[in-house]
Please model this.
Amino acid sequence: MKCKIVSAKESRVFDNVLSIVIPNTAQGQIQILPQHAESFILLNEGEMTIEKVSGESQEFEINQGLCHIRDDTVTVVF
Model:
């Protein structure tokens, strides 16, 4: 899976992503795994975690934003 993060400060791309946990306005948090259905998700304030296949993980603070999932690519705009 691939994750693209776009913010006013920077844009980054992560390859070989195993899972992504994002803060969601409706359910609190959502974990995104490979082959997730195409979706648009409104993001709430909280922490986003990206876990790579290698076991490495990174965390980002999100105020609010939008997540689009399509064809094993997760695009997060905040």
User: Anything to note?
Assistant: Strands lie at 2-6, 11-14, 17-24, 28-32, 39-43, 46-52, 57-62, 65-70, 73-77. The chain has one domain: 2-77.
